[in-house]
Amino acid sequence: MRLATWVDWNSSSITLENTTADLSWNVWTTIIPATPITPSQNGTYQYPVIEETDEQKAKARQQAAEYRERETQRVREQEQVKIRATELLRDHLTRHQKRQLDQNGHFTVLGSEGRRYRIERNTHGNVYCLRRKGNRWEPTENLCIQPGGVPAEDSHLAQKLMIETDEKAFRQIANIRTLIH
């Protein structure tokens, strides 16, 4: 058994490639609490590290490879979902709204009760109620209404449709913050 410092545990010397999570958890919960820990001469604390067998190392490498493959697949699927959500949103935008989104990262929507809103690309607190001030529109309220677990573009479409068809319900559900000007 060799000794490792806290720095070892937080560096690349201890990874999924050369240890297993179960073994590391066992070290941290069983061996370390039972081991008297004293500072070394340079002031760092030394913790025991259990050397793994070749079989354990091979298992850890296999687990790491499987994890990387699952993660790569998950990322690919998320990219496809985002592409489909973007296409669906754009199918429901007017030419003017598409141009606004492309150029400014937001688009405006006229609510069913006559208010004008700006929907921005971000996901939370991304809706602003606007009022005309001179020759421009300025935000007076920040509204937050976010369906969970969906791509941002699907959320933007849901916000747009609700504002256009039932602005009153949208405002009742949303968290509204008045902006001071």
Question: How would you portray this structure in words?
Answer:
This protein has 181 residues and is an alpha+beta fold. It folds into two domains: 2-87, no CATH class; 94-178, no CATH class. 49% of the residues lie in helices and 21% in strands. It contains five helices and seven strands. It has helices spanning 6-9, 21-34, 54-91, 95-104, 152-173, and strands spanning 2-5, 46-49, 106-110, 116-120, 127-133, 136-144, 175-178. The strands form two sheets. It has a five-stranded antiparallel β-sheet. The mean pLDDT is 83.
Q: What is the number of beta strands?
A: 7
N-to-C order of helices and strands: EHHEHHEEEEHE
Q: If helices are DSSP runs of H or I spanning 4 or more residues, what is the number of helices?
A: 5
Strand order of the largest sheet: 3-4-5-6-7
